[in-house]
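ok trying this again, last paste got cut off
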Amino acid sequence: MSVAAAPLPTAPVPVTVAVPTYRRPAELRALLPELVVQAAEVTDASRGRYTVDVLVVDNDPEGSAAAVVTAVALPGVRYAAEPRPGIAAVRNRALDEASGARLLAFIDDDERPRAGWLACLLDAWDTTGAAAVSGRVLAEYAGELDPWLRAGDFFVRRSLPTGTEIDIAATGNLLLDLDQIRQTGTRFEAALGMAGGEDTLFSRSLVRAGRRMVWCDESAVVDQVPAERMTRAWVLARAWSHGNAALLTELRLTPAALPRLAVRARGLGRGALRVAGGGVRWTWGVLSRSHRHQARGLRTVLRGAGMAGGAVGVVYEEYARDGRRWHLARVAAR
């Protein structure tokens, strides 16, 4: 899929590709040239309809990514430091730094774009006029994957027909129409910067504001899964984290006190059902020696436990830097 040819516009559409980063110099050094190539391809194929720059937003207090940007010395690549810790702060900084752009595309520093990644996102936006376009994320493993993990499909992301309307999106492969984002006032929630789930809250808030999000299956990035994430402990902790973040997101989307109590009650109930159902599936997996039932059952147990924990105020900060990941907190109304 390529950017459709169009008459030369009187005003080119500015596009910023944002790369949030935190102490991944090798990955960043490999990614930036690929983004510059895609930016040039889009500009050429669209006959100047789009102009593209690349923005690196560094969350390292020591500014380690600055040396990488200087060393690669690529045209159209700029650097911004965001000292406030957390991915939400970095993404908000990208929104601010892209103040002169119409479109903002996010890609993570440990991902690699496949051919036509950016062009396909732009085509989908041009065709649909959506406020957000989300694409595929494919896993690439650092080594041989544990058969138990493979059977559980822990790293398999969704794939949908292009143009499908969605109500939730991750930000590892996401294009935003900033005119529409600014009209709604949607931002990433800073309080979730270390816990994760800020992209879930952002995308659901955008849909609640009446904006459309669509899927683009042709736009794909490859997520490089390091060895330290290819463990049962890591994927099960991630399941707990996702369940926890899902419930906390629901609470933040519910401002009134009584409905929030109902959300907590439902979270406890649904979490308990998942724990029970997952436990039954895991038991069957043990008896039948099925890796898939064991893995999927335990995943359901941990996700349910995370939901129940969120309902009673337990927060798991997956990206905490001080080693303190678990704490109790009252989720403030938005």
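PB: full thing came through this time. Confidence is low (pLDDT under 50) at residues 1-9, 330-334.
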